[in-house]
Amino acid sequence: MTARIAFVASDAPSAQTARGALVTRYGTVPEEEADVIVALGGDGFMLQTLHGSQHLPAPVYGMNRGTVGFLMNEYSETDLLDRLAAAEEAVINPLKMKAQTVDGKMHDALAINEVSLLRAGPQAAKLKITIDGHLRLEELVCDGALVATPAGSTAYNYSAHGPILPIGSDVLALTAVAAFRPRRWRGALLPKSAHVRFDVINPDRRPVMADADSIWVENVLWVEIQSEPSIEHRLLFDPGHGLEERLLREQFV
């Protein structure tokens, strides 16, 4: 039986053109009726699609019409049905962020790649780090810090010199961004079950913002982060080009 495909695309002209060609060739259905969702764009659009379809049973197969395309497969129009039939599935869980701002408001968000805290003023941020209720770092003076999933470990985390994590590992990366004190402290590896809390020291003079997959919260007072196992994102990849292989390959370039 032919799979019912929902084609979605970013606003980029190349993605819109690709969607038109694929819809003409294969037809399309609404996402709610699809057996598989095909996302056309870059990694940013893939994250947007995963967030938007997390309540649906259909897995997401991405084809790159952007730049890096780490979460995407190569684009081709002619052999899509065969590729979908042979695709390998990777299941990832997002991070859940809860944050309170200095005005007392609460904010919740989900992040597939990472939750990051960044200084929002001219002075370095000062953060206190607590893991599972135990104070682990009294004061981190830095430009920021982040918690990354294995799927997101090659993104901002890797640029900040954090470790690349195997996709099947039950581990999160806690990585500092330009740490000043403790000097050269770059973070820690945490179990996936860890509950991470950042408290902002002197938030009036040293404001900090939090970001969960491009959902920004300004002037945070504290941020709590933990994995959300009740939500599963299903991604499809061509055989031999899945997340596990890509994460391994990134460590040898």
From TrEMBL:
One of its GO terms (cellular component) is cytoplasm. Its EC number is 2.7.1.23. It is an enzyme of class 2 (transferase). The active site is at D43. NAD(+) binds at D43, G44, N113, E114, D143, A151, T154, A155, Y156, N157, Y158, S159, A178. Its main location: cytoplasm. GO terms for biological process: NAD+ metabolic process; NADP+ biosynthetic process. InterPro entries: ATP-NAD_kinase_N, ATP-NAD_kinase_PpnK-typ_C, NAD/diacylglycerol_kinase_sf, NADK. It holds the Pfam family NAD_kinase. One of its GO terms (molecular function) is ATP binding. It catalyses: NAD(+) + ATP = ADP + NADP(+) + H(+). Keywords: ATP-binding, Cytoplasm, Kinase, NAD, NADP, Nucleotide-binding, Transferase. The keyword RNA-binding does not apply. Its cofactor is a divalent metal cation. It is found in: Cytoplasm. Involved in the regulation of the intracellular balance of NAD and NADP, and is a key enzyme in the biosynthesis of NADP. Catalyzes specifically the phosphorylation on 2'-hydroxyl of the adenosine moiety of NAD to yield NADP. Belongs to the NAD kinase family. This is NAD kinase. It comes from Roseovarius bejariae. The gene is nadK.
